[in-house]
Design a protein that fits this description.
The protein folds into two domains: about 1-155, Rossmann fold; about 160-330, Glycogen Phosphorylase B (Rossmann fold, 3-Layer(aba) Sandwich), CATH 3.40.50. A six-stranded parallel β-sheet has the order 2-1-3-4-5-6, with helices on both faces. The longest helix has 20 residues, at about 110-130. It is α/β, with parallel strands linked by helices and about 350 residues long. Helix 4 links the parallel strand 5 and strand 6. The protein is about 40% helix and about 15% strand. The chain has eleven helices and twelve strands. The N and C termini lie close together (about 10 Å).
Length: about 350
Amino acid sequence: MKILVTANLVPFIHGGATYHVNGVVDALRQAGHYVELLKLPFRFSPEADIARAMKHASSLDFVQPNGVSIDRVISLQFPGYGIAHPNHYAWVMHQHRAAYELYDPARSTPEFDALREQIIAFDNASLTRARAVFANSGRVAERLKQFNGIGAQPLYHPPAHTGHFRCDDALPYVFFPSRLETLKRQHLVIEAARHMRSSLKIVLAGDGGQRKAYAALIERLGVGDRVALIGHVTEEEKRAFYARAQAVVFPAFDEDYGYITLEAMLSSKPVLTCADAGGPLEFICHGDNGWIEEPAAEALAARLDWIAAHPRETAEAGARALETWCSADISWERVVQVLTAA
């Protein structure tokens, strides 16, 4: 089958979306399909560029470009699912979140309100034309139903390097690898350190727009002896930190899916998350394979102190986390089967 996969090109910004895009392309090729990846340039600002990107995507007709018949188009990101093709599948990572669950009318502008109406109309028209609509998590499917009235089937996929995660004897620290951005809420963990009574260390890995702010917060709160902001780590280093951690912390706000949860489970580590975390809540059961706390520094601090005081129970929760992963039956083989079904 000739398959065109569409995604976005956002220069020098890499994250979970990059693994998702590369993963599905590789899986489809390994299954014997002839696959091309089309990346559409995308910028979050100025807002006029978003309107132009939607118009450009809508103008693209891949029914038979240059006389070549394409059997199926699979679009992963906004606005690529506006491309015209009679056998178009949308596998939505997330929509343009600023127009949906992150929209705040009190802080908006008339210009963005007008753009938001365009985005919602574009999504409604594009996704209802698609032959099938999938979401990369149950949470993303919930948003599509809530905001657009569109039903989507959750289709889960594994993180990169699935077979390379491991579990070693734990050291007295918790691990939080992620981009340093406001929605990931590293600030909650840094603030929690101020309230902790145990000597448990917190290792924050990753880089991003909030690095200077978080470094300043660590200094201002005087928790530099407890919180390590270590910056970028390689994939191999990340897996080593997972392997030795007592637990993994992931308190992000309304996450779409959350590779960190899956990587922790693959490493036999329980996850500490929050009640409004979104995607991670689909895998974490409080008190069984992790913990779900209120998004407050004091609540996180109390649980982190509990983890420090209960290493055996924490390790047992990690073993159950691995069992959760094994029972979930998440694989690229299943993804390919679903996306290439007649």
